[in-house]
Give the backbone structure.
Amino acid sequence: MSDALRATLLVSCRDRTGLVAALSDFVFRNGGNIVDADQHAEAETGQFFMRLVWDLASFRLDRRGIDAGLTALGQAFELTYELTYSDQRPRVAVFASKTPHCLYDLLLSHQLRELRGELVAVVSNHEDLRTTAGHFAVPFFHVPVEPGQRARAEARQQELLAELRVDLVVLARYMQILSPELVARWPSRIINIHHSFLPAFVGARPYHQAKARGVKVIGATAHFVTAELDQGPIIAQDVCHVSHRDDVDDLIQKGRELERQVLTRAVRLHLDHRVLVSENRTIVFG
Amino acid sequence: MSDALRATLLVSCRDRTGLVAALSDFVFRNGGNIVDADQHAEAETGQFFMRLVWDLASFRLDRRGIDAGLTALGQAFELTYELTYSDQRPRVAVFASKTPHCLYDLLLSHQLRELRGELVAVVSNHEDLRTTAGHFAVPFFHVPVEPGQRARAEARQQELLAELRVDLVVLARYMQILSPELVARWPSRIINIHHSFLPAFVGARPYHQAKARGVKVIGATAHFVTAELDQGPIIAQDVCHVSHRDDVDDLIQKGRELERQVLTRAVRLHLDHRVLVSENRTIVFG
Amino acid sequence: MSDALRATLLVSCRDRTGLVAALSDFVFRNGGNIVDADQHAEAETGQFFMRLVWDLASFRLDRRGIDAGLTALGQAFELTYELTYSDQRPRVAVFASKTPHCLYDLLLSHQLRELRGELVAVVSNHEDLRTTAGHFAVPFFHVPVEPGQRARAEARQQELLAELRVDLVVLARYMQILSPELVARWPSRIINIHHSFLPAFVGARPYHQAKARGVKVIGATAHFVTAELDQGPIIAQDVCHVSHRDDVDDLIQKGRELERQVLTRAVRLHLDHRVLVSENRTIVFG
Amino acid sequence: MSDALRATLLVSCRDRTGLVAALSDFVFRNGGNIVDADQHAEAETGQFFMRLVWDLASFRLDRRGIDAGLTALGQAFELTYELTYSDQRPRVAVFASKTPHCLYDLLLSHQLRELRGELVAVVSNHEDLRTTAGHFAVPFFHVPVEPGQRARAEARQQELLAELRVDLVVLARYMQILSPELVARWPSRIINIHHSFLPAFVGARPYHQAKARGVKVIGATAHFVTAELDQGPIIAQDVCHVSHRDDVDDLIQKGRELERQVLTRAVRLHLDHRVLVSENRTIVFG
């Protein structure tokens, strides 16, 4: 991962005619160098998506100037866009419960500088993972969720997220269902890991379901959280082969491996500004 | 694949105490050499499964003697078993419609002597694949299925299967649903390929469903056919990664690759007498 | 695969400053619509690579005009480029010997219209595959290679390739080594399949080498042929898992599956104009 | 993983005639129940290998009796064998240097009770990983390896391994080469992770080698350490796909994922007594 200062632009619009030319001309005319560009036209919806990264080393506009330029282009082409700079590291809160494997993977990736973001908090409804967070020097917040008291817990969580200026929430095997209200406040900004290759085995105890159905592959799915459980846009999925020899405990163990890989991969893609949402699907610029 | 004469025994029973000792003693006492042995105890059902292969080169019992010996053991241990000899090649009929890729894969595997069975017929409701069958010198039978006339077509199919002494029916993208009556006559002896990683996307047009849901993997599933559509015991599954770039046609193309591999793999496993069914699951001795 | 008329431009150059803007402006200004664009900057060599596809439906330049425009841009930016139109289908000759699996896969893909090219000839040093070619209505040419007579055989092959106006040669398990002279005439236009995950197990009998080394994965590699045996730029590779149970014959059988998939994938990528060569490596715009 | 008390027998011999019968009879006659049995006959060497697991719950022989019985069978059939009981947990020392990912994976697997052994020490030539070991409550020993002082360091390591009664040494990206003398004392009891799909890219900086060769897959290999560097029997391997977009740092990052998975998998297999060595290959009873 380069440390050069860069701008990344994620764009969606309906009609792309002239857009690529206009955007590349905007970058070129102001002394920028396009480092990466990717695009996708979706036949089904008629939408066009683009990711453009350019080097700011000798760019002649400052951020205010870039804003002005993009505002003008955005109006001309009716763009929805998101602009980020590589020195703005998104702030991430990880929600977890008791199982540590997904949390460890995120913390270690962070420590190894594989994530373009800051882990600023581990939030949990249990105390078990406090020392894990502490080992990696990430603040830990215990927010218990008493039966029937979800609203109160979520109020505290919201407060924390606001105080810590969190940009992204990652549910790393967090065993509570978030309210539609909380979800609605964080559109495309909560990533969950589900322990099946969705849409197979939605809901609880997917490894038990998998064993009962006798499948020969199991999987894990990272997706954005929406109001409908397990139905949000899928960011990443992976699977591994299993056999009749694997009992439910074996599936759980093999699944752990998948869950942490797939979740960390999805978080990494999101923090690299590679993920766009279109209706209930994602465009992932790999 | 060795050409030595061998016996393969597939066994299920409730209690295995002493069974392995009794069976291996039976083989040893009569001058046989155990070439392969595999077993599985299923905690959920309390069932025990075993596959035993032995060399008949210097075995002192003839087939009548083996029958007698196994009958005695079968009663002593309350076994369900199936005994086959490597010189008895199961006879296979492939049902297909118009799409050729799965059929080609089976025909070529057969020609390359990768299948321990004989392809004795290609049966189709269309004429399109006649020359394909002919190219590989496999007899082709056109059995049209007129709307509302399935019973008549199935009567003709049954007649053919009986005449040709068929042991296994393979549905290689055969686009007709078999009646419960026909299915009931062929328990664990009809293998179908479904173009999704079941239980995701049951029913029609799974690649369209996959595109709509935005999954990042697609799959194929080979399973035994039962009365309930897409619900039979799964023999083999595989998946491949896809992205937002893949439109439905791309999924169909990538899926073809999976379908033929998974179907041929399942047929090969079955013809090697490696597949046992327990309730709605398979034990596959790999 | 869309049937709309399109132009595909593959470009390499040293300095990309302004290039993306210039090319997209060229397309836009003349009424074209960019359908796909991908680029890669190679840090090691300082080279820049780009693939640009645009729709010609309402493009205001004819092919002569496009040529003129690109010639000007090519000089301005010191480009090496290759321009193709989607109605120009590259002509492909497949060289094979006796083993049919790779040839079948190519022929079937062609028949299923998965390849953007025409298979115009099967050339073989044996007669065995004549009927296979014939079944798919592709002309078959028997060019025997007598010991010590390679030069004579290659002269005949060259003649054939010239007569048939062949653009790409695919070695589908062709068991003869081509002379450096012939290879030199077809730079980046001969694709071979090697039955190992190169650079492991170069040379002969890789599955025997794999068995002897006790590896747990085997693989296949499609690469452009260069004067140095098994050293050319790699286009595609894949592997599968094996175990101690697999004897050399099993490895050969599993390998067949890999070989044909990997070779067909590489040919498809090349015919889609997605492959560029840089020194001894490929850029594959996926 | 069941907690029932079990015996596991790993056997190699030249001639298996009657052996399976004799062993299963030994277990049955003394009231044991065979829980798992697997076998392999190696055509190339004429060797026979077997793994037999039985339940000791109602076994009528104590360990002394089992020893006597197996000694007799061992002489009769000229067996080499290893007998272990499930309440004897092998003691494992992990050697590491500075990179933490493989060590974390082993420590976490241990904490999650996925390993049938005890991690009794982390031994390192640097201080960096002391807190990591401490976090998981595993003793850490700093054994510096000064230039030209390997013998002294190895003497200290041997002392430690003896004191701690270590059964298995795992090199988790330990960046020192062990002397042939140390290796000779630990035949088939030192597991190393090499960061390539051996035999490709032996030696140093395999990811740089992989980038230079332009491969489309990278891999990792866990193997027993022998006197010849990177040449020992392979226990487990895995690979992942890469592209021209991956620079050496990306390969290193993707490789980390492979390295820790493959190493932990190999250690788990060994601790489950599933790995036998035959010449320079392994039999892995999966």
The helical segments of chain D are 19-29, 63-77, 101-111, 130-135, 150-163, 180-185, 206-213, 248-271.
